[in-house]
Design goal:
The chain has 15 helices and 9 strands. By secondary structure, it is an alpha/beta fold. Helix 7 (163-174) links the parallel strand 8 and strand 9. NADP nicotinamide-adenine-dinucleotide phosphate binds at residues 24-29, 47-48, 53, 55, 82-85, 87, 109-110, 131, 135-136. It is an enzyme of class 1 (oxidoreductase).
């Protein structure tokens, strides 16, 4: 049975009289800091030194008190860890861990480093998670519109007896309980996220690329293949989200499309490969490969990026946006 929390179920009181430090002022950090401040929470920012990052100056320009990460950790009761995931372990070790004292709360925005033991907080602090299910600009945009972004909360370690209440108060301050927040585990948040990235993003992008490549190889004009491979999908995703996939297939697209979707779609998807990737993710193999890739300086990604940027599809896309609009 899913446990969903909404505004009426959650109090922001666990944050009253407390200082919340947002550590890392990037995509999520900026949005969550602004929303929490607008929810009347005392928010400060912790960033890398000004010579390494423009974030400190940006946070000050946005009206926040901004400090080094070590100083923000000392001043805060609750820390929202909004650093890029691979950057977290060395910064945690050097600046956060030495300045943690009993009763503080570490609130992560992705469970990866805790789940795989790369960061092991002391048992005297709460280790929780709050993740809004959208990029930062959308989290902010929805909040300003009086709405919120669906999210999740989890507790890995409850040192003070009210760790979940604190995680939920953070979710409320950021606006997510306006939509609904589901309780889950660090394991499911992390593995679910990694699974989705591999299957959905990886799979959908590969499908678009293959659709383009096969059409061009068979003599289709590249602009036409590009429009088919990306534009047509873009235009129907919102409709499916609004009315439901079945309504879209049965009533909002052509009968030819319905026949194509129902009869050929399953042939395109390799169900066994999806299940195998799920098992690999559960076994921690994706996490191991990613940590190794990062620690080696991302050689595989550099090579894959170079070849992808030169592809005919990318060049067609650039021309397409200029010639036919965004
Ligand atoms: N982006 C999303 O849509 C999204 C959605 C859900 C959850 N999350 C989670 O939110 C957390 C923050 O993600 P994000 O996307 O907001 O990260 P981000 O904007 O890419 O980076 C956040 C901050 O990390 C620091 N940073 C980035 N690269 C670094 C490097 N190479 N070395 C040292 N520090 C570095 C910078 O800190 P300074 O500000 O100090 O320069 C930066 O502002 C992650 O745990 C992520 O999984 C993100």
């Amino acid at each position: 049975m899913e446990k969903i929390y909404r505004d009426a179920d959650v109090s922001i009181k666990p944050l009253e009289g407390k200082t919340v430090a947002v550590i890392g002022y990037g995509i999520q950090g900026k949005a969550q800091a602004a929303n929490a401040r607008d929810s009347k929470v005392k928010v400060i920012i912790g960033t890398r030194p000004p010579e390494e990052s423009p974030s400190r100056a940006q946070a000050k320009a946005d009206g926040f008190e901004a400090y080094s990460i070590a100083e923000a950790t000392k001043r805060a009761d609750v820390l929202l860890i909004e650093l890029a995931d691979p950057a977290q372990p060395p910064i945690y070790k050097a600046e956060i861990a030495p300045n943690l004292s009993p009763g503080k709360t570490l609130c992560f925005c992705h469970g990866f480093n805790v789940l795989y033991g790369v960061i092991q907080p002391p048992k005297s602090v709460n280790t929780v998670l709050f993740v809004p299910n959208a990029p930062g600009h959308f989290v902010r945009q929805k909040y300003l519109a009086g709405e919120g972004v669906y999210g999740c909360v989890a507790v890995d370690h409850d040192a003070t007896g009210d760790a979940m209440a604190i995680a939920l108060a953070v979710a409320k301050a950021v606006g997510s309980t306006r939509a609904g927040v589901v309780e889950m585990s660090f394991q499911h948040e992390t593995e679910g996220d990694n699974f989705e990235e591999q299957i959905l993003y990886g799979g959908a992008i590969q499908l678009m690329k293959m659709c383009f490549r096969v059409m061009v190889e068979n003599g289709y004009p590249p602009s036409f293949a590009y429009a088919k491979a990306i534009r047509s999908l873009r235009s129907v995703i919102d409709v499916m989200d609004e009315v439901g996939i079945e309504e879209y297939i049965s009533r909002r697209c052509s009968r030819t499309a319905e026949f194509a979707i129902r009869s050929r779609g399953p042939r395109v998807v390799n169900e066994e490969a999806i299940r195998e990737i799920f098992r690999e993710t559960e076994r921690g193999e994706f996490a191991r490969d990613w940590m190794q890739e990062w620690s080696l300086g991302m050689p595989t990604l550099h090579r894959l990026r170079r070849t992808a940027a030169d592809s005919e599809m990318e060049k067609t896309g650039q021309a397409w946006r200029k010639d036919f609009g965004r």
